[in-house]
Amino acid sequence: MTDRPYSGPLKGLRILEIGHFIAAPFCTRVLADLGADVIKIEPPAGDPVRKWGAAVEGRSLWWSVHARNKRSIALNLKASGAVDVVRRIVRDCDAVVENFRPGQLARMGLGNDVLRADNPGLVIGHVSGFGQDGPYRDRAAFGVVGEAIGGLRYLSDHAPGTSDLPPVRAGVSIGDSLAGLYAALGIAASLWQRDRTGGDGRGRTLDVALTDSVLSMMEGMLPEYGELGRIRQPSGSRIPTAAPSSAYPSRDGKWVVIAGNSEPLFQRLAGLMYRRDLIDDPRFADNPARVANVAALDAIIEGWTRQHDAAALLSLLEQADVPSTKIYDAADCAADPQYALRGMVRQVEDPHLGRTLTHPGIVPLVTDDPGDIRWCGPDIGEHTDEVLTGAGYTPEAIGALRADRVIA
């Protein structure tokens, strides 16, 4: 832990995370980045994400980001006495975020009534696969399940008839992250309602489902089906409602996204390709016509992009003010000057590894008080004694809890 002071618009809030894997911890990372004091309860063996992804000296690089700005307490929630520890900590918290299966915390003796017994204004956020009610509430679920049942995995596939491979995923656990973002928004909204001028001081309960979070992002998919009986289909790299807008190959084997889908943009793109005849071609006269004839149009654009290396191609497109970019990999993101200037790629000292790591920055950027990366993902139980002392435990009481294996 560093001695950097807390900063950011959520400075002064205290959040207890009883979470594991991705969704709830992603929610609290967002809140912690914005200045909240997040206390993370982990089992003595640690959050499973500590062992996920590439590692250096046995430490997950993802963990350095995933748990940054949080204080870790190692607590065996199944041990006798653990409930009292949680209750003592919760007394001084503004919110709790958890992502066990529905009802699991209550079975441990930590239901909403218990958590609010000494803190009626506590906001409690439950994040789960399918929500706290409904016929699927007790099913096991991870982000991939939410992405599949929410319609995202279907729409993120290649266009029908172009591939026999399984539907592709986004490449990251986007369903978990979406649920985490909705939970963070819900926490902030509930605290605002509780604490605003004229607020009632009453706690709120949030019910965030991975499946709901994904489905809510599906644009016009449901109304199109409900009104027209139309099932929106995957479109690969293209946008089904606008053209041209896709990724096109360059001479040196890169992929360049070009979005020339408004009338002025398409005219500039056609001029850049020395194909102003396309402007008067009835197949491409307006956006609906271009969408109807997108395969022919994309073949023409691809024939042009293949004549240029990616760097030269992007220079031409930028000069013509046509929205475009190379499709970035990790190295491109790390070297990008726009990300660097905005602090979205930054160097952070991780004392657990004894080196500087490259971290993503803080989103959203609150320009007057942007928050900070105060420290990287902590060791298991690194702050156990600190947190319990703050909750009123004496050194002797902490020692007794450790002897009884309630804490590690």
Automatic annotation (TrEMBL):
Among SUPFAM superfamilies, the record links this protein to: CoA-transferase family III (CaiB/BaiF) (SSF89796)
For this protein, the record's PANTHER family field holds: SUCCINATE--HYDROXYMETHYLGLUTARATE COA-TRANSFERASE
Origin: domain of life: Bacteria
Q: What is this protein called?
A: CoA transferase
Recorded GO MF terms: CoA-transferase activity
| Pfam families recorded | CoA_transf_3
- For this UniProt record, give its keywords in alphabetical order, as a comma-separated list: Transferase
